[in-house]
Each structure stands twice: as C-alpha cells, then as structure tokens.
Design a protein that fits this description.
This protein is mainly alpha-helical and 218 residues long. The chain contains 8 helices and 2 strands, in the order ααααααββαα. The longest helix has 24 residues. It starts with a helix and ends with a helix.
Length: 218
C-alpha cells in the first residue's frame, strides 16, 4: 500500500499540477491558444514545465545539497519556507508571461489560481502545516469544473502517438479528478505525511484559490 501511496504522491506532486491544468485546457480547446492540436503547443508546454517543475526542482536539490532542508519530503514547516518562496517567484513570472501573451482567460485563471494557492500555503505554513498535495488536487478539481461550467468546454480530445485521438466528455475528466483527489489525499494520510485536518485544509485552499482567480480575472 505504501508503494502505491508513494507512486500517486509522485505522479501528482504539487509542482506538476499546473502542467496538468494546461494539458486539460489544451485538450478541450487548443484553438483558443492559436493551435490546431496539442502537438503544436510544444513551446508553451516547455515554458510551463521549465518554470513550474524543472527550475523549482533544481532549487530544492540545491537547498538539500547546502543543508537548508533535511530531506526532499520537507516534513517540517521550517523546511518548506525556502521552496515556497522560490516557487512563488517562478510561478509569478509565468503568470506575468501568460498575461502579456495572446492566451485565453482560462490559462491566466489557472496560473493565477495556482499562484494564489502557493502563497496562501506559504502564509498558512507559519501557523499550520498544509498539505500542498491536497491543495494542488483541490485546485485541479476546481479548474476542471470551471472548464465545463464557466468556459463552456464539453469535450476533451486527447492525442496519442500514431495519430490516435481519444474524445472524452469533460464530465469524465471531472469525475477522474475528484477520484484522484481522494486517492492522493488518502495516500498522504497513509504515508503519515499529514493528518486529516491538514489534508482537508489543503483541498479547501486549492479550490478557493482557483475560484478567487476566476473572480479577479472576470
């Protein structure tokens, strides 16, 4: 069970969530980004991955080498301060980039929402340890829900090699996101990385952050 819990914790690490959100938006309406297919969005995906995954991960590795954090799990609130600040600055730079570029409101909501969630977790971290995994998954559920309810996208077209396309109702993506949120949160509890209060708080913070971003940008 712990092996499965570790697998889902890695697969849905908080740093990966904005990339997943971007993929969902590209699957549902690549035309709004100026692309005919997700395969044409390589530069955008590289920018998102570099800014939200690669550079923050390199920063954390350097902090570990310098002894600023004891482990990559960052089990104490003190260890999370540096990574939160670095990630917050990088995510802010991404939001400023997508705001200036000719991209749809949906990606600006996603990037601003994740930025709000990140800094909210940073502030709350001074008082209580919040599950960043739960916050990320709560934000993902909220973003998929907005994609259907507010942005009006009904289907997702997921491309595979050899030109194979899988067309799914956005409802299935929403149900899947909810199910995965339950799995990831249960994994964090199973690994004893958080207690139930920290997990529930994370989910609430994640959802509210995305909703707040939508209200601000509309």
């Amino acid at each position: 069970m712990k092996a499965a819990a570790n697998f889902f914790s890695i697969l849905f690490h908080p740093l990966l969530i904005l990339t997943y959100m971007t993929l969902v938006l590209l699957w549902t309406n690549p035309f709004s980004f100026g692309y005919r297919h997700v395969a044409e969005a390589g530069i955008l995906l590289i920018i998102v991955v570099m800014t939200t995954i690669t550079l923050p991960a390199i920063a954390v590795i350097m902090m570990k080498m310098l002894g600023w954090i004891q482990s990559f799990r960052m089990e104490t609130r003190h260890e999370r301060i540096g990574p939160y600040i670095v990630a917050g600055i990088l995510y802010l730079s991404l939001y400023l980039h997508v705001s200036k570029a000719d991209f749809p409101t949906s990606i600006r909501v996603a990037s601003l929402g994740v930025l709000i969630v990140l800094w909210a977790c940073f502030l709350l971290n001074n008082f209580i340890k919040v599950s960043a995994h739960a916050a990320g998954m709560g934000g993902l559920v909220a973003m998929v829900a907005l994609t259907k309810l507010k942005f009006g996208y009904d289907e997702a077209q997921i491309g595979f090699p050899a030109g194979v396309n899988l067309v799914l109702s956005i409802d299935y993506l929403l149900y899947g996101a909810i199910l995965l949120t339950g799995i990831v949160c249960s994994s964090r509890l199973l690994l004893k990385a958080h207690d139930s209060r920290e997990v529930y708080l994370g989910v609430i913070v994640g959802m509210l952050g995305i909703m707040m971003a939508y209200v601000i940008l509309h």
